Amino acid sequence: MAEEEVKDLELMDKIVSLCKRRGFIFPSSEIYGGINGFWDYGPYGARMKRAIENLWWHEMVETRDNVEGLDSTIICHPRVWKASGHLDQFSDLMTDCKKCKSRYRVDQMADPTTCPNCGSKDLTEPREFNLMMKTFVGPVFDEEHTAWLRAETCQPIFVDFHSVRVATRQKLPFGIAQIGKAFRNEINPRNFTFRSREFTQMEMEFFCDGEEGMEWFEYWKQQRINYYKNKLKFSDDFFRIYVHEKLAHYAKAAIDIEVKFPFGWGELEGVHHRGTWDLTRHSEFSGEDLQYMDHDNSRKLMPTVIETSVGLDRTMLALLCRAYDEEKAATAKEGMDEDTRVVLHLPPLVAPIQVAVLPLSKKLKEPAYALYKEIDRHFRCEYDETGSVGKRYRRQDEIGTPFSVTFDFDSANDNAVTVRNRDTMEQERVNVTQLRDYLEKQIEA
Ligand code: ATP
């Protein structure tokens, strides 16, 4: 293995271990040995996940008059998945090694004739494996009562298209967005949360006149690129656009936004021009006419769909991978004797804790705690009084807190506190009356 690859694997191990140690992400059901492909988000993880979710919702729904929100069920009528093609086609090719019993997705093997684990050439014939997760609805466990956990959040958007349009009186073009769980029985879950069997998607389907489809595709592609650059602060070397050349027969254009994970480039989001395929299929299978009546031009049309589809878990993983850093010798600056500081350079908008309030001494607990309670109403905050201030800074660095506010013995007299910046480690004296404003500006920057 090349030196670079070993380093990347080590980096991934360090991220996984920090996530466990500091309560971001850990294996589900760990005391029972875990369950492959399922992950729990601990206190900081849950806060960060919610922050990303809120940011996406804010950008995609709340700030737009022409995008509506939806929160649909995970289990839908089984015909939904027949119409979408998932029951017949949502499968990957799988092969088993007869010698060591390992199982693989054929398209992920460097050499599909050799077992990557033991090198044996004795593999089973590749066969189709459907990724839909099956369950039963009601007390009888038979074919008639079989249902499926949704494999993507967008299908219920198509199914509810008509109801949402009527309820909101939206005219084309407009979008419907939803955040929620999706389930896929992935053959080989791996790379931490990157490929899980239960995960969260954030999807938006934009319905428009086919004539304007490509314009809207370009628009949404640009909007999403801007979001990664300006809100999540992804630099040009961290993400790239992959243009699909082989398209589904109904699609007109498709790109993926890919991110440079330590284990290689991986898909984070897809922006797809899906033509009229989805609504046409649901019209056929349900018998409901899902065409749009354009009263202004006295015509009926089947809307064209532009989709933006991103994984929340992958976004969080990308942010953590991008943020993780070990800085040699930086600690001396704050009088600490370890030689490395571990720091997450997370964008303040999505950091699990945005502001930590630290009294210089426990004697200052009362006013410091009161200040914490005050700013906690406006930011994600934490109060910490245990250990030296240097150690507390270090704890906050490790979870990516961009600002630490220290309340010292002068604070009571001059009504000012010291704000320490995570990235520069510089300190600034800020008047308490200006604090909220100061922090808001820095967080939004
Ligand atoms: P992949 O090729 O990686 O399997 P996909 O093309 O099947 O992904 P989509 O169906 O386009 O993925 O889903 C949209 C988004 O949902 C993906 O870009 C990704 O962020 C997320 N996603 C898909 N599958 C998983 C998974 N198993 N675990 C975590 N996130 C996922």
UniProtKB/TrEMBL annotation:
The gene is glyQS. One of its GO terms (molecular function) is glycine-tRNA ligase activity. Pfam families: HGTP_anticodon (PF03129), tRNA-synt_2b (PF00587). It is found in: Cytoplasm. HAMAP family: Gly_tRNA_synth_B. One of its GO terms (cellular component) is extracellular exosome. Homodimer. Its main location: cytoplasm. This is Glycine--tRNA ligase. Catalyzes the attachment of glycine to tRNA(Gly). Residues 13-352 form the Aminoacyl-transfer RNA synthetases class-II family profile domain. GO terms for biological process: diadenosine tetraphosphate biosynthetic process; glycyl-tRNA aminoacylation. Substrate binds at R105, E152, F199, T200, Q201, M202, E203, E307, T308, S309, V310, G311. ATP binds at residues 184-186, 194-199, 267-268, 311-314. Keywords: Aminoacyl-tRNA synthetase, ATP-binding, Cytoplasm, Ligase, Nucleotide-binding, Protein biosynthesis. Belongs to the class-II aminoacyl-tRNA synthetase family. Gene3D superfamilies: Anticodon-binding domain, Bira Bifunctional Protein, Domain 2. It comes from Victivallis vadensis. InterPro entries: aa-tRNA-synt_IIb (IPR002314), aa-tRNA-synth_II (IPR006195), aa-tRNA-synth_II/BPL/LPL (IPR045864), Anticodon-bd (IPR004154), Anticodon-bd_dom_sf (IPR036621), Gly-tRNA_synthase/POLG2 (IPR027031), Gly_tRNA_ligase_bac (IPR022961), GlyRS-like_core (IPR033731). Its EC number is 6.1.1.14. It catalyses: tRNA(Gly) + glycine + ATP = glycyl-tRNA(Gly) + AMP + diphosphate. Coiled coil: none annotated.
